[in-house]
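Our preliminary data section would be incomplete without showing what the modeling component actually yields. Below, a chain of 554 amino acids is followed by its predicted structure, encoded as tokens that our downstream tools consume directly.
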Amino acid sequence: MNRFFAELKRRKVYSVAVAYIVAGWALAQGVAQVFPVFAIPNWAVRLVIVAIVLGFPIALVLSWFFDFTRHGIVRTPDLEDEIEVLPAVSSTERSIAVLPFTDLSPGEERDYFGEGIAEEIQTALAKIEGLRVAARRSSFWFKDKKADLKEIADKLNVEHVLEGSVRRDGNRIRISAELTDCCNGFTLWSETFEREMQGIFALQDEITRAIVDALKLKLDISTPIASRLVRSTAAYDVYLHGLFYSDKATEEDLRKSLEYFERALEKDPQFGRAWTGMAKSWLWLADAYVAPLEAYRKVREAATNALTIDNDDAEAHVYLGETKRILDWDMDGAAREFRRAVELDPKSTPSNYFSAAFWAARGERDEALVYLQRTSTIDPGSLWVNNSACELYRYFGLYDEAMGAGERALELDPAFVYGEPLLGALYREMGQFDKAIELYAKAERLNGRPGFGIAITYARMDRPDEARDMLAKAIASRGSYTPGDAIAHVHVALGAHDDAIRELERACNERSSSLHFAGIAPEFEPLRSDKRFLSILRKIGLEPEKVFAANVAR
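Predicted structure:
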């Protein structure tokens, strides 16, 4: 009974009952006063009162199934559809964001080293039990932006912020760091260090320990800090260059990162994290700039080499899991890699985001939502995370959550350097075609790339000529390779199912990384009765009935 009453409260039945009684009573009183003035017979007054009474249980039943939101009347999700909320942050848990250190060194390349040092410290702090650390993409988004520490802390939902600067002069390094409690604005700890480059790893450990002491946390001495696995400072310096460019979006920058990682390995063949960096760069080159069969083989080679050197590298397990999913269609093998990654590094964005996407593609709704919630908590300021979360929430019919994530992505970068604004697809599914077209057109003006989303939207608006025109432009903008499933989206919307199947079969043969989402994407619902479509889904390791059920309104 307690659960039943709690469900009544969650579905706002109590609120509707109270509001109905108040409004009904006011209406009845008004009718009783006004009708006699106009000589309306008493039976009409009684009829209105009876209608109000009979409408009460109907209102309660409707309130059980439906809810008013800012997007209109929507079906209230069943309790099992609710996102699993992670345990609330305990009063003893601390939280911190590490901002990119300002590089004051002379010379042209002045960013890679400061960012690299900050990321190393952030990675080390993330290993500390009882400390929640904002992810790199979220913290580094504030670089060069005019935001005070209190604003940064509020947006990242952290109590403390670490900022600092670095300066290199030959082999000499000077690092200044300051830890601020943003709840009261007080500085908890600050210090300046000077070391030779050979002592950089010990210095990173020293800063980490100082922060842990300032936050009154316990540091497990046995916890390995990643920098201890590095043997060559020369290789490490080159590696930081590669890491800097691997977080960029252009093909030129990603290929430049590969060159730096290769140079790091030439200096130290046992530098496992350089292999992980190569796997990451090839993964982001795949589909967007390089055909997946070529790129993901490179990802697998690099991730395997990284794990041969250090089998506890969580990020490398993520990338190996992606290759098992995409190249081998080995979904069980991929699941083992993703679970291992989360076990090794439960606080990392790659471990949680790729797990969320993987379980969503398999139709494991509840598990996917848990990882998606964790990713949003770890990395709230990431364009990539929020844009992708908008899409995954949309797949599950959770439009409020999708809207929130999509709007955050739009605030972070209206140009969408990482791809199309997936908020546009949400607008389209909600029937707000004009808003979808406006958003797609704005993104195209800013980034110069026509998107497939606007072609789908035109097709859904029964404007086939414009849809085909935008499809041709989108394909032309992609260069030599375009994923077949991206083209198939448009063909389905145009009703050209044979053409859509042909493109999906091509995507299957070419190992498009996004093909696994065709099962759960609502755009492909018209094909769900087509035996050819079902055959493709089974071939790539999916269970069609299970996947289709994941986004059915409950």
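The first strand starts at residue 66 and ends at 69. Confidence is low (pLDDT under 50) at residues 79-91, 221-228. Preliminary results of this kind motivate Aim 1 of the renewal.
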